Amino acid sequence: MASSLWSSLLPTAIFLLMQTLPKASSVCSDCFIQSRAAYYPNSNEKGTESACGFGSFGATLNGGDVSAASDLYRNGVGCGACYQVRCTNSAYCSSKGVNVVITDQGSSARTDFILSKRAFSKMAQTANAAASLLSLGIVDIEYRRVSCSYPNKNITIKIDENSNFPHYLAFVIRYQQGMKDITAVQLCETQNFVCKLLDRHYGAVWTTTTPPSGPLQVKMLFSGDDGDETWLVPVNNIPEGWKAGETYDSGVQVNI
User: Quick check: 14 and 7 in contact, CB under 8 A?
Assistant: First the structure.
């Protein structure tokens, strides 16, 4: 009798236990991923001008600790994302590694990252170990996404040099903090609040061939891997009569 009752309850008990166990397919946002990294030999320790549209600014962002990415470039969505990268050879490599910002697209010999020479060297424990890493050229690494941080900086809008007031507007968004991606941008008239969705021209460059008139508000959609989305509305607007090459402070920053 007891044996029969246990047999009937066993499937239910197993089912309930399976519901409480973590799913094997769940994504660990804090886990390291195994890969390989190289570096730019001719980077002057500051990276390269970029497929993200950052120009020479991209070589100095984050103190020059920058990187090109292959799959992580994600058709430009990955521009500005930050990653902790550390090499795995315990003879040379520190456990901390280096935090880099994606500013370019590129790959070399099945690598996920091509670091600036400066960033590549910072993965090492000592200056001598850095020289040894550089001599290897390509090393095994592990990486994970981390939050970008720019203390005392607001998000800024840099008007591209190719913009032509009032007929064509292109700009790059700089200094985005946090771990979310900018996946959409709206440009709104500040008087009647009519908005238009902009095109991602390439990398982090957003464009429109028919910009609205008057002061302009740039709304940014921040999207996370968990599906969460947040629209950010800046305090400051792009002024009426904006100029190519100018940089405008949004007056806001994110910590998401």
Answer: no
